[in-house]
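Q: Joint fold for the lines below.
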Amino acid sequence: MELTTIGWLLLWGTAVGLDLATVAQVMVARPLVAASVAGWIVGDVQTGIIVGAVLELFALEVLPFGAARYPDYGVGAVSAVATAAGAPGMLGIGVGVAVGLVVAYLGEIAIQLVRQQTTMDVKRRREAIDSGDVHTITRAHLRGIRRDAQRALGLAGLGLLIATVVRAAPPVTVRGAVLLSAVAMGVGLGTTVLSGVRIARHARGGWVWLAAGLVVGTAWVVVQ
Amino acid sequence: MKRVMLSAATRLFLFQASINHERLQGLGMASAVEPLLRDLDGGPAGKAYRAAMGRAAGFFNTHPYLAGFAVGAVAKAEHQGLPEQQVDRLRTALKGPLGSLGDRLIWAGALPATAAIGLILLTVTHPLIAVGGFLLLFNAVHLTLRWWGLGAGWRAGVKVTEALRHPVLQAGLKTAGPVAALMIGVAIPVVAEWLTEGLDWSERWGTAGVALVTVVVMRWLAPTVGAARLGMLALAAMLILAWVW
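A: Joint structure:
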């Protein structure tokens, strides 16, 4: 991978990591978006959209209520595409998704560390903050962004490092790579079924709407 | 006033920048409300401003997209010179309803619905249209809520709960869940077919089997495991099997 490509992937990884919760939340952190753009950066859009679709199925599980913990699928998706890019057909998808899930999970842990650091930062300045000192409040707030940017950049760097190692020494044979892809898709699809069930349970007439959707979707597939 | 509202609205996009275990979004609340407090008696150097900022930075947690309601309402209450306890009660009273409303409207409604639409579009059209369509649809709801919420909170002040009963918001609340359920229902077979079209029939049945096992494990055997962890376990098991084989 060229240095320029690595630079753009790091930049994009940092941006999607920040979008997860800290800055804007315009959902460029969704795997569907993060992976597609990463695919475009590495010059393999097709792999980007497939990896993005599989990881999006996983991410549909996340309902970030309150201060819930959830994986950083955005940076995970960027790492997954960096791993899978260039592999023909289905061969890179499973391995890419595996790397993506590991990075997403590490991202979840890193978010907790960042929040702990911010908590300590805020505790140290409790008196000034409670007295309404706008400079202290603003600086503590902005340090939160810097901390999360460092987390996202570090995570994206680690993801690219893992991707490079995996690409240099693929852990499976061609047959194993296809089976790995099938397993990744299976877990993603099962997760989506459960997400649909969870949403249907809490929505008025949700079961009927979910069933109607399944019928329409199946009919669509059959007709095509 | 418009400039000040614009400044507060921009800061709403950083509402969760300093989320922490002590005050959660407290500093984000203070940062967003700050432009609206500058013209309190005495200006930014005055006692009223500092006291209001100190209160604003206290513990706060709500849905980030609906935080504008609270920011506007709290700023208005401070401008009206309401007693400290009443402002605190307003903040406390808004956290739960705004959080619950946002969770149902966005996290369990608009987000899964638009993401499912994006996935469906991905199978039938150019990726740019799919990704762009998802971002456009979702952010139309998101940005409207952010901007309208801030204005509605500012106009209503302590009567902000009346703004939450707006017919459009209530209609959105009623339709968000069903639309999400419908779209996920459509997406499951369509995306499954699209993803597995490169696999042979035995591999397709294998994928369906893994999906079934995932449902059983996450629904009944280990409901707290989470998709990412289960995915890692399944893929690690597959890797080991592949090596042994």
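Q: Anything notable?
A: Residues 134-168 of chain A form the longest helix (35 residues). Chain A is about 80% helix and 0% strand.
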